[in-house]
Amino acid sequence: MGIVLGILSALVWGIAGVTGSLASRRIGATAAIGWAMLLSMIAAVPLALLSGAPGRVDLRTALWILLIAACMLGGLVCVYAGVRYGSISVVAPISATYGGVAALISIIAGEPVTVIAIASLALAVVGAILASMGGSATPGQQYSNQRMAALLGAGAALVWGVQLWAGGEIQDDLGASWLVGCSRLVGVLVISVPLLGLRKLTLDRTAIKYAFVAGVGEVAGFTLYLKSSAYGVAQAAVLTGQYGTVAALIGVAVLKERLRGIQYVGLVVIVVAIIGLSVS
User: Fold this and answer.
1) CA nearest to 10, candidates 276, 270, 272, 279
2) How far are the Cα atoms of 121, 194, 247, 267 from residue 18, in angstroms, in the given order?
């Protein structure tokens, strides 16, 4: 069940990543994040209320929530800024190595893991790196700096890896839905409210539609990940990290981004890694 939830999370997060990136290209990273945070509450609040009362609520829990929210926002800033420099098919797979970061932290923290699982985790990271190699092109689209895009994707991987690990550690205390809702609320207070006050939350109907799908998708994806992490944080983190594969495939099939042969090899390697995790 944990594997199924992890794969579903990757699918949902992949769609959210692409739509959020498209919103960023239209109105800028900050405004896109502001709209995504604000609109995501449409899903986050009902999910939290329907899940019942929150669990442990104290200073320790609040500090965990602040850490998760900070990493969530940091990763989004990196990705949304990255796709303004380069292609989604490059940024997404690199940022998707956050699964390996979270898994590594979990293993260091003492989570039991099999040899097959370790090999599969390593293979998944290798696949993500291969998927990011080389440039890509989109008819009618010029990219200003693919190297900067790749660096920003790597930055997102680091902070999102911490976010996933922290989420897996604290969700039993607060509850998955409340954890997601509280972290998104922090995002609204830090990003959306100030932009509204400064009248810098750009009104662009197409971008707002993209941001709505991104925001709701991020809530659903993180919730699915947290449910999956109950069966093992390391496994859930890497499975969820395949959002980069989903985003890259959408970039190729829908946005007409062109990948090189080595990048397709990377996508195949990632699929093999998923199979390895399923039998570990």
Assistant:
1) 270
2) 24, 25, 6, 17
> How much of the chain exceeds pLDDT 90, in percent?
31
Q: How open is the CA angle 184-190-191, to the nearest 5 degrees?
A: 85
Cα 75 from Cα 249, distance rounded (Å):
21
Q: Give the residues across from 138 on adjacent strands.
A: 141
pTM, two decimals, is 0.81
What mean pLDDT, rounded, does the chain reach? 83
Question: Could you state, in order of their start, the residue ranges of all structural domains in the chain?
Answer: 2-279
Q: Is the pLDDT of residue 15 over 90?
A: yes
Tell me the C-alpha distance between 78 and 150, whole Å.
Answer: 10
Query: What tokens appear for 77 in the block?
Result: 């800033």
Work out the burial of residue 139: count CB atoms within 10 Å of its CB; fewer than 13 is exposed, 13-18 middle, 19 or more buried: exposed
Mean pLDDT of 250-272: 77
